Amino acid sequence: MRAALRAEWTKLRTVAGPRRLLLGMIVATVALGAAAASVVTCESAGCGGDPVRFGLIGVMLGQAPAAVLGVLVIGGEYGSGMIRTTLTAMPRRVTAFAAKAVALAGVVAVAGTVAVLGSLLAGRLLLPRHGFTAAHGHRALSLADGPTLRAVVGSILYLTLIALLSLGVAAVVRSSAAGIGIVLGLLYLLPVLTQAIGDPHWQRRLEQIAPMSAGLAVQATTDLRLLPLQPWAGLAVTAGWAAAALAAGALLLRVRDA
Amino acid sequence: MTGFAELLNAEWTKFRTVLGWVTGMAVAALLVVLVALLAGISSDQQGSGPAPTGPGGEPVTDSFYFVHRPLTGDGSVTVTVSALESSVPTGLDGVRPGVVPWAKAGLIVRQSTRQGSPYAAIMVTGDHGVRMQHDYVNDTAGPAGPVRLLRLVRSGDTITGYASADGTAWTTVGSARLRLGPTAQGGLFVASPQAVEGLGTTSSVSTAAFRDLRLQGGWAGGEWTGEQLGAGSPSFAGYPADTSGSFAESGGGLTVTGAGDLAPAVRYSLPTAGTLGNLLTGTFAALIAVIVVGALFITTEHRTGLIHVTLAAGPGRGRVLLAKAIVLGSVAFVAGLAGTVVAVPLGVRLARAHGVYIFPVSASTGLRVAVGTAALLAAASVLALAVGAVVRSSAAAVTTVIVAFVLPYLLVANPFMPAGAAAWLTRVTPAAAFAVQQTLVKYPQVANPYTPYNDYYPLAPWAGLAVLAGYAAAGLAVAAVVLRRRDA
Questions:
Q1: Which of A4, A205, B126, B225 is most buried by a 10 A CB count?
Q2: Dist CA A41 CA A96 (whole Å)
Q3: Does residue B388 contact residue B402 with C-beta atoms inside 8 Å?
Q4: B82: which DSSP letter?
Q5: Across the interface, which of B281, B295, B394 has its CB nearest the CB of A193?
Q6: Which of A19, A20, A39 to mutate to test the interface with B (most CBs of B within 10 A)?
C-alpha cells in the first residue's frame, strides 16, 4: 500500500493539471465568497441570514474543480490508457484504487483548508463593512466560535467528500466527461429540481438526500431547527454518497476488464 | 478543398454513428419530459378554487370592497374623496399605519358583480396619484397635483373618467369601451393590495371617506349594497388579522374600508400557480446532457487522434469547426424541441388534473417557449464544443459550461442575494437565456417582487437568448483562432 500511495502521490505531484485544479479550487472558493460578501447588505438589526454560511458560499463553486480533479484521477487514466500501466504495476486493483482515494483526499483536504480559511478571512474582513456588525446582532467571523469552527471543518470535509464521490463515479463510468456530467448533475441539478416539486414533503425529502443541499447543512450556524437535516447528519449523507460511489467503483474495477 | 456540404455530411456521419452521443441527446429530450411529469404529479392544490379570468383571458385579482347599486342606461357619478389611510400588519397581531402605494379608492362601473367582469374605474391611489383603469390590465395616469374630486360618466358602452382639484376645472383622464349590457353595477370601491416587504409581501387594509356624492341618470333608488367581492378567490390575500371590510353612511358621506385588488394576477397574488418555465425545469437536466455531448464531440477527436484525419481531410480548420457546430446545434435543437413539445402539454394537463393553476399563455408565447428552449440547448451545446476545442479536456470543458449556467441560477435563488446582484447575474451570464422561458408579464401598476427567483427576468425573452448565443459565437471564434494557430 505504501508503494501504491507513493506512486499515486508522484502522479498527482508531477502533472500540471492537478496543481492548476487545486489552485482553481482555492481561487474560486475565496473569490465567490468575497464577491458575495461585497454585494450583500444588512441594513437593520436582525436582518436575518447566516453570515457564516454566506461567507462560505464559495464552496458551492470551489467544489467544481474538486470534482474535476476527482474525476480526472481515474477518468484521465482511462482516457490515455494509463490505467493499464497502473494495473500492471499494481495488480491488486482495490489497493491501487484505495491509494488513489487516499492521495486525492489528502491533497484536496490541504487545498480545501486554504480555500475555506481564505473565504472565512475574506468574510471576516468584508462582512462588517456591509452591515454585518455587532450593532445588528452579528459577531465577526471567528474560529473561536464553536459553530463557526464546525462549519469550517465541515466545509473542508465536504470538499474532500465531493472529490471522493467524483473518483467513485468516474471509476464506474470510465469516462471523464460522463463522470463529471453525472457528478455535477447530482450536485447542482437536485437543488434546482427541488424547486420544481410542488409538494413540500417531497421537497424536504429531496433536500435531505441531495448530496449538496444535505452536506452544506454543515455550514449552518443559525436557525438550526428549521434545517431539513442537522449539520453533521447532513454531512453524513454526503459521506454516504461518497462511500457508495467508491464502493461501486472499487467493485467494478475489480470485476471488470480495464 | 472539400466542399462544405461534404464536411457537414462527414460530421453528421460521425455524430450519428457514436451510440453514446445519440443516446445523450435522446436522454436530454427524455429528461425534459420526465421532470415535467414529476412536477405535474408531485403538486397537489386540490381544494383551492380556480383564479378568475378577465375579459382578455388573463388571470386577475377581482377582490375589493364594493358599495354599489344598479345603473340602467346612461348616467354619471361624482364624489369628493379623502386621502387613503392604509394599515399593514405589525407581525404577530394588530396593525400599524403604513403607505400602500397601490391602495385604491374611487368610482367604478362594471358589467356585474361576477368575478372577472369588465369594468372601468377612476381612483386615487396611495402613492401613484389619480389613475383611470379598466379591464384589469389597462392603466392611465391622471393629472399631477392635488385631486379631490372624481367623476365617472357612462354613455352607452363608453365610460369616461374625469378628475378635478376644485370641482370647476375638470380634466379628462381616460375613457374605455366595455361590454356592459343594459343594466350595470356602479358605485364606490376601496382596494388595498399586498405590499412588498423584504423578500415577500404582506396583506393590507385601507379606508377612504367619500363626501358630496352626486348621482345623475338611470341609477336605481334605495339603499347602497356593500360587499366584499371575490372573498374566496385564490388571488385574494385576505385582510390583516382582526380587520374586515365595511361601509358606513354618516352626514351625507360614506366611509369605506376594504382590502384586495383589481389588477392582473402576478406571481405573489397566485403563489401556488405554475408557469411553463416551472414545468420545463428539466431543461437544466437536459443542459448537462447536451453539454457533455457537445464537449465530447471535439475532445474525443483530440484524445483518439481522429482530429489528424479530420484536419487532413478538411484542412480549413475554421470550416471544420463550423460544420461540427452546425451538426451538433441542429441535433440539440431537434432533441430540445421534441422534449419541449411533449413535456409542456403533458405537464400542463397533469398539473391541472392535480388542481394546480397554470398561468395561461397565447399560442405564440407557447411557441416561443418551445423554440426558445430548443435554441437554448443548441447554443449551450455549441458553447461546450467551443470550450472543448480550446481547453481540449472534456472534464474541464463540461465543468466550465455547466457552472456558467447553473451557479448563477443557484445564487439567484439564495434569499440573501440583493436584487441588483441577482438582476446582474441574469443579464450577463449564460443563465440569461432562461429568460426565453418566462411567460409572466411585469405590470408596473402591480406591486410584486419582480425578481428572477419569482420567474421575472430582467431581459426580454429573445434578448436573454441572444446573450447566450453571443457567448457561443464568441467561443466558436476563439476556438477557430486557437485551432488554426495550434498544432493539433
A1: B126
A2: 50
A3: no
A4: P
A5: B281
A6: A39
Cβ atoms of B275 and B358 within 8 Å: the answer is yes
Q: With the C-alpha atoms ordered B326, B332, B335, B341, is the resulting torsion angle positive or negative? A: negative
Interface confidence (ipTM) of the complex: 0.82
List Cβ neighbours of B436 (8 Å cut-off, separation of 6 or more): B368, B369, B372, B373, B375, B376, B461, B462, B464, B465
The answer to whether B241 and B415 have CB atoms below 8 angstroms apart is no
DSSP state of B266: -
Residue B131: φ, ψ to 5°? -135, 150
Is B413 at the interface with chain A, CB within 8 A? yes
Closest CA to A182 of A167, A201, A200: A167
**Percentage, residues of chain B above pLDDT 70:** 96
Does any CB of chain A come closer than 8 Å to the CB of residue B34? no
Q: How far apart are CA A131 and CA A41, in angstroms?
A: 6
Pair B44, B354: CB distance under 8 Å: yes
Per DSSP, helices labelled H in B59-176 are none
Residues of chain A with C-beta less than 8 angstroms from the C-beta of B299: 177
d(CA B209, CA B229): 19
pTM across the whole model: 0.85
Question: pLDDT digits over B177-200, tens only?
Answer: 988 888 899 999 999 988 776 656
State the pLDDT at residue B200. 64
Residue carrying the nine cell digits 461546450:
B384
Q: CA-to-CA distance for A48 and B415, rounded, in angstroms?
A: 10
Question: Could you tell me which chain B residue has the CA closest to the CA of A68?
Answer: B395
User: Chain A interface residues facing chain B, Cβ-Cβ under 8 Å?
Assistant: 17, 36, 39-41, 48-49, 54, 57, 60-61, 64-65, 67-68, 71-72, 75-76, 79-80, 175-181, 184-185, 188-189, 191-193, 195-199, 202
Contact residues for B85 (Cβ-Cβ < 8 A; gap 6+): B97, B206, B207, B208
Q: Please give the angle made by the CA atoms of B372, B374 and B379, to the nearest 5 degrees.
A: 90
Region of B374 on the Ramachandran plot (φ > 0 left; ψ -120 to 50 alpha; else beta): alpha
Digit-coded pLDDT (tens) for B365-417: 999 999 999 999 999 999 999 999 998 888 889 889 988 888 888 788 776 67
Residue B370: closest CA among B333, B326, B409: B333
**Domain ranges across chain A:** 2-255
Neighboring chain B residues of A193 at a CB cutoff of 8 Å:
35, 38, 281-282, 284-285
Q: CB–CB of A179 and B278 under 8 A? A: no
